[in-house]
Specification:
heterodimer, A: mainly alpha, B: alpha/beta, TIM Barrel, 2 domains, eight-stranded parallel barrel, five-stranded antiparallel β-sheet, 11 helices
């Protein structure tokens, strides 16, 4: 036992060097990426994979059509808009020859093909359907000999049909089928010959011609010529762009060679366009070069959106989700932390400068005659103005954008900007404001089918609003909006079990008692606004948890009377729970004696003989305080008990559950807890400094009449200081304290350095 | 240790998708009398419908002069997703695929690389058993990680003809305080000396390098394309006392956006550490004829013939 105590004491004396590593993993990339500029706003759904993503390619799929929009659009025009695009998609892409869609009989396009005059079209589609199963590469290359033989037959039929067809529409499409069949048969020369002899002479602008050119390009030996053709295809069509994106080189020498091979400025512009897409950093230079060479390039609109999405990511993701630098608890207070903070601020300024530059450039482009979709450009400018905190700019460009008859995605984005600006630039929350905000939130719902990844988008709107309120020090509104953050984005206050409960997490980390007063004032308000009703919806089952937190904010602030008053409103049964109904197993966790004098630095309690519920504990604390202040008998002892109680509520204590709801080793050794996590909360610094405990141990030392007990109480103050220095960079304070110990209690220093004799010194309270 | 004359053979892994050896690489193989090149033929992963599929298939652009042993890397999720029927199909597909890709007449050995754990052990071992019955006399080998080696009772012993102990990637890749996650003998030696492994073993040592990108003290990604030469560019990087290279300005390098203030840790395998590793591994040999493999056949290996030979000598 002695040996154990000795080890414990050594740990106690050296605990400032105790290192607790933060968890190595934290969410990143798309799990946390923040974006409120809907990437589908440039109407480029065929380029969905190339929408900006924190990872290499965008994985989310939003497109309602299974087939490429560009081909369905061509069919739509060819059929004079007689059938909706979904109807065309149903027949061409959702039905196979062997497994026709069950909806086919009701498909108008299908029935249209049954008419005599449409037989040629029907024959073509039947042919395409019949060979569909041959046009794929099996993962394991298990094509049968029969498949190969059939492919060869089909190839000849396709070429013959192309030559025999009476319309360019069918000639092109049959020839295209021939090209693809030859490609999968690995008949390289045949691919090229069909393209050159059957497709090129048609001089078609159809995307089918571009797709055919793609297969030809892939069979060309001269790689630079292949890259040149890829660049043309990338700009003129969309379906093969992901393939090209993955394989297009970016090396300086190779790009120079490709540009040498280009035969026009348009082709060079397309090369720069691909490079801009491949650029995960600032692509301004490449975009500008592209536009200089080809002001009419079709790639510009999406590239603008991509740049905005990048800047949003760099600007907001870490700050709003609490991850990235913000979560680096391990570093807080260290020299690294100071360095990282400096770097972060410097990068933020650089990003802001870039945003300003893009906005200036976009302002110029938006006035050009060649600019298509001006509604998009003005909406982009409005959003960039929002990012730059320019309220006048938001109004100016939103008004301009609203003058255009834009599609619903742009309208949805404008509504989003309007909502975000309303919160950002109007921090005062009165009834009128609330009504208007509620209306604006409601309006966004109307665009559920237009906004990209709507659930995530809406969740991020709520997060942005919540964070804005937090910036405005309106913790209550921040917490209530936090209950609406959903949609899959991982963030600091996220609760996996209950989204509504996220309010608790935010309040726990940020609220002081005055915030909790306001929270419950709102909770109990009889005439709630629509917004308040909406925000409080779903919180009812958590009433006692929030009430516990309310009382705890007072306990953190050492306002014991108010804490007790609030705790006493909670039914006794709550404190007796042995399940997970109320945040934690109260009875199970509050099972140590909080007044115990602890001789080691371990958080484990040595005394399980007495335990107290929260109200019992606070009541007892009040009683002991009163006793110590009014009665000289056992005064030093009572002060020591108070010191024990406050110490046991710290990070190192056996009853930290009285003031905290979670404990992490990553809190250890970090000034983080003082400077960051608890900076706004009523917890203040006591949890990690033990200052209150130290105050009472000092009073115990000063009021003790027994020098041995005084020395012991001085030693307990040292324990508090050790806790403090394990978080703060105040190592020198410990050595000063040790020096004073020698001066003050020279007789007892050696005894109290180790802990073998702690029991003896403790027992002297009776003489104190 | 088995009785008889103990011999050690030198070999290398080839892990690129294009088998396109340079003249220097061919000369290196010849000079070092390397008879066998363990060549990764493909990886097996899952598609969106949880079907096993081969990716990154090797493409032989030059005809190999040495014997080729195909290696197939399988991600563990494959065995989490597949049932026994699907595993049987996988065995057939793997076998067919190897035949299709094989540039030579036959194989004397096939190697499977999978970082199996207890939860998928049964399925993985079933796969190996089925594959072995399919390939008959051809030797089946598989890779063995250090923890599988130390804890055969927990991890199981794979039903193969022999294993190859991978003595690399043992450090804490994510840790800012790590100095070398590729080769860390302090960690490595904790896994050695626990008795003879139940099946014959070959050994694999690293001789590669990579650069790790850290932002705000957190590891962001592995950069294979940034080498020591790139890091010597003082306009972009500043070497610090900690050994990290500080990114001086926002930079796009090889498709990676390096933010100002980020830090890069270049990890490589020094001769001293490799020799120490060889000394540590040598007593673990358990067969008469052992192969020592180096990962992997790349320019740095070719240029370090002397170093490789000294490591090899230490292992013999």
């Amino acid at each position: 036992m002695k040996a154990i105590k000795l080890i414990a004491c050594l740990l106690l004396l050296s605990s400032q060097s105790q290192i607790a590593n933060a968890c190595s993993y934290y969410p990143y990339g798309e799990d946390i990426r923040f974006s409120l500029f809907s990437p589908n706003i440039s109407d480029e759904m065929d380029l969905e994979a190339l929408f900006y993503s924190a990872t290499y390619l965008n994985q989310y799929s939003f497109d309602q059509l299974r087939g490429p929009n560009e081909n369905i659009d061509e069919w739509y025009s060819y059929l004079d808009g007689a059938f909706e695009k979904v109807v065309i998609d149903e027949l061409i892409y959702k039905s196979s020859y062997n497994k026709p869609s069950p909806k086919l009989n009701a498909n108008q396009f299908y029935n249209f093909l049954k008419k005599e005059e449409n037989v040629a079209l029907k024959e073509y589609l039947l042919f395409a359907k019949k060979i569909e199963h041959l046009l794929y590469t099996d993962y394991w290359d298990t094509k049968t000999a029969e498949d190969i033989a059939n492919s060869k037959i089909a190839l000849e039929i396709a070429v013959n049909q192309s030559q025999a067809a009476k319309t360019e529409w069918l000639k092109l499409r049959y020839a295209y089928q021939g090209v693809v069949l030859a490609y999968y048969l690995k008949a390289d020369k045949r691919v090229i010959s069909i393209y050159d002899n059957e497709i090129a002479p048609l001089k078609s602008e159809s995307i089918i011609a571009k797709w055919s050119l793609f297969y030809k390009a892939n069979n060309i030996d001269d790689k630079y010529e292949r890259y040149r053709l890829w660049a043309i295809i990338f700009e003129k069509s969309r379906t093969k762009n992901e393939y090209i994106f993955k394989r297009f080189p970016t090396g300086e020498a190779e790009v120079a060679e490709i540009l040498e091979h280009c035969q026009s400025n348009e082709e060079k512009a397309a090369v720069y366009g691909i490079l801009a897409f491949k650029n995960p950093a600032r692509a301004y230079d490449q975009i500008v070069k592209m536009v200089d060479l080809n002001p009419k390039t079709s790639l510009l609109n999406l590239l603008l959106v991509r740049e905005i999405n990048k800047m949003e990511d760099w600007y907001y993701t870490d700050r709003y989700t609490g991850y990235g630098r913000a979560v680096q608890s391990y570093w807080y207070g260290s020299e690294d932390d100071i360095r990282f903070k400096f770097i972060d601020e410097k990068n933020f300024e650089a990003d802001k400068k870039y945003l300003t530059k893009i906005k200036r450039w976009a302002t110029n482009i938006s006035t050009e005659k060649t600019t298509t979709n001006k509604g998009l450009w003005f909406t982009s400018l409005a959003y960039m103005s929002f990012m730059l905190d320019d309220a006048a700019g938001v109004n100016f460009y939103s008004n301009k954008a609203n003058k255009y008859d834009s599609d619903k995605v742009i309208k949805a984005e404008l509504k989003t900007i309007e909502l975000l600006s309303f919160v950002k630039f109007n921090p005062v929350v009165d009834t009128d404001y609330q009504d208007e905000l509620y209306e604006k939130l409601d309006e966004i719902k109307l665009y559920k089918n237009e906004l990209y990844n709507y659930d995530r988008f809406r969740g991020q709107i709520m997060m942005a609003i919540s964070r804005k309120y937090l910036e405005h020090n309106n913790v209550v509104m921040a917490a209530l909006f936090e209950t609406k953050v959903d949609g899959g984005t991982q963030e600091l206050y996220q609760d996996w079990d209950s989204q509504t409960y996220q309010a608790f997490n935010l309040l726990n980390q940020n609220a002081q008692s005055s915030d909790m007063d306001a929270f419950f004032e709102l909770w109990n308000k009889k005439e709630k606004t629509n917004l308040e009703t909406y925000l409080l919806d779903g919180l009812e089952p958590f009433e006692w948890r929030f009430t516990d937190l309310w009382g705890t904010t007072y306990l953190r602030e050492d306002n014991l009377e108010m804490a007790l008053k609030i705790y006493e409103t909670i039914p006794d049964s709550v404190w007796q729970v042995t399940n997970h109904d109320y945040h934690y197993y109260y009875q199970q966790e509050l099972n140590a004696n909080p007044f115990e004098t602890r001789f080691s630095s371990s958080a484990m309690s040595e005394d399980r003989t007495s335990s107290y519920t929260k109200p019992e504990f606070v009541r007892k604390l009040i009683d002991i305080k009163k006793e110590a202040e009014t009665n000289t008998k056992d005064r030093a002892y009572n002060y020591m008990l108070l010191g024990n109680a406050y110490y046991n509520m710290t990070y190192n204590g056996n009853s930290w559950y009285y003031t905290e709801y979670a404990w992490s080793t990553s809190d250890g050794n970090q000034y983080y807890a003082v400077n960051h996590r608890y900076r706004n909360s009523g917890q203040n610094t006591n949890y990690v400094t033990g200052d209150r405990a130290k105050k009472y141990y000092k009073l115990a030392e000063e009021t003790s009449k027994n020098p041995e007990f005084s020395a012991f109480c001085y030693r307990l103050q040292f324990k508090c200081l050790t806790l403090r220095t394990s978080f703060a960079q105040e190592k020198h304070a410990l050595s000063k304290y040790k020096e004073r110990f020698i001066d003050k209690y020279p007789k007892f220093v050696i005894d109290l350095n180790g802990c073998d004799r702690f029991g003896y010194y403790f027992s002297k309270w009776k003489d104190a | 240790m088995a009785c008889g004359k103990n011999t050690v053979e030198k070999s290398v892994y080839h892990w690129e998708t294009e088998f396109d050896l340079t003249a220097e690489e061919e000369a290196f193989l010849e000079k070092e009398e390397i008879q066998t090149v363990y060549t990764k033929f493909f990886d097996i992963t899952l598609d969106s419908e949880m079907r096993a599929m081969p990716v990154a298939k090797v493409n032989f652009l030059t005809a190999p002069q040495q014997e080729i042993v195909p290696v197939v890397y399988i991600i563990t999720d494959v065995f989490k997703a597949l049932d026994s029927n699907a595993i049987q199909n996988l065995v057939a597909n793997v076998y067919e695929q190897l035949q299709t890709l094989n540039p030579q007449d036959d194989f004397s050995e096939i190697q499977i690389d999978c970082d199996w754990m207890a939860s998928i052990k049964d399925k993985y071992f079933y796969f190996l058993t089925e594959l072995k019955s399919k390939i008959g006399e051809t030797m089946l080998s598989c890779t063995i990680r250090l923890y599988q080696y130390k804890y055969p009772n927990l991890a199981g012993v794979p039903p193969v003809d022999k294993g190859v102990l991978m003595y690399y990637n043992m450090g804490e890749l994510l840790s800012y305080s790590e100095t070398n996650s590729i080769l860390n003998n302090e960690i490595g030696e904790q896994y050695l000396g626990f008795g003879e492994y139940p099946i014959p073993l070959d050994f694999a040592l690293p001789n590669f390098s990579w650069t790790l990108l850290y932002q705000y003290g957190e590891m962001k990604r592995i950069l294979l394309s940034i080498d020591a030469h790139d890091l010597n560019d003082t306009t972009l990087f500043q070497q610090q006392a900690s050994g990290y290279y500080l990114v001086k300005k926002d930079t796009l390098l090889d498709g990676v956006f390096l933010r100002s203030g980020s830090e890069l840790r270049h990890e490589t395998c020094s001769e001293n550490e490799l020799i120490r590793a060889a000394n540590l591994l040598s007593p673990e040999k358990n067969q008469n004829h052992t192969t020592l493999l180096f990962y992997d056949l790349k320019p740095n290996l070719v240029n370090e013939s002397d170093k490789i030979n000294r490591v090899f000598a230490a292992f013999k």
